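Page 37, continued from 36.
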């Protein structure tokens, strides 16, 4: 479903060549829940930008849902981002003076999808906010705002949820709440990729991929995951 093959990303900074990713190969199957970790400068942000079709590799191939992303034009990349990837960010990125349900409708507006109100309401119900559809972001807790953001991410039925430090602005209780929600969405068949530096967040993943100096140094399946019984 998601395949990086010998991916290298080089940024030119004057006379200096910065190799942010160096010959990375990685496959993420449909229905997986993967945490991508690493210290500052490891290549996590570059990996997120490439997985999210916000950037393309300098070398190598990235296939998303069978599509070679490197062959696409800017307008095609925008369509892929809107339809196939659900983004969840640390800062929530909600429109302040717009209700929860209208925030969730936005991706469908850009994609030209009809029956938006019903679909947005259903997405909010899935994340436990069916009674908060008309609330503004400042009338919701941090955890609830992130739930709205997750509803917005899943409303177009994307092939991947890409969550960049999704609990970075949340307290411990809200962090667990959001990670359990993402785990439930994954259990229902959605592919989830987490970019995180927090061990607590990574502990919910099925796999943990660790980057250092632009390379994968570890790719481990987790046998004992948080929030999973048995």
């Amino acid at each position: 479903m998601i395949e990086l093959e010998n991916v290298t990303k080089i940024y030119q900074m004057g006379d200096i060549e910065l190799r942010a990713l160096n010959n990375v190969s990685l496959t993420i199957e449909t229905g997986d829940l993967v945490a991508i970790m690493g210290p500052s400068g490891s290549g996590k942000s570059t990996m997120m930008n490439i997985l999210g079709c916000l950037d393309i590799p300098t070398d190598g191939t990235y296939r998303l849902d069978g599509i070679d992303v490197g062959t696409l034009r800017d307008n095609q990349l925008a369509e892929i981002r809107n339809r196939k990837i659900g983004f969840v960010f640390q800062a929530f990125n909600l429109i302040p003076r717009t209700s929860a349900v209208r925030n969730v409708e936005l991706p469908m507006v850009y994609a030209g999808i009809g029956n938006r109100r019903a679909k947005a309401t259903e997405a909010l119900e899935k994340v436990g906010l069916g009674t908060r559809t008309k609330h503004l972001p400042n009338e919701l807790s941090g955890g609830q705002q992130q739930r709205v953001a997750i509803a917005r991410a899943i409303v177009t039925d994307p092939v991947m949820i890409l969550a960049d430090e999704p609990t970075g602005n949340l307290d411990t209780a809200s962090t667990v709440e959001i990670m359990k929600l993402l785990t439930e969405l994954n259990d229902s068949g959605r592919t989830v990729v987490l970019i995180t530096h927090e061990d607590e967040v990574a502990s919910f993943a099925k796999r943990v991929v660790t980057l250092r100096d632009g390379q994968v140094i570890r790719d481990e399946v987790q046998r004992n995951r948080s929030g999973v019984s048995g």
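The mean pLDDT is 93. Flag for discussion at group meeting. The chain has seven helices and ten strands.
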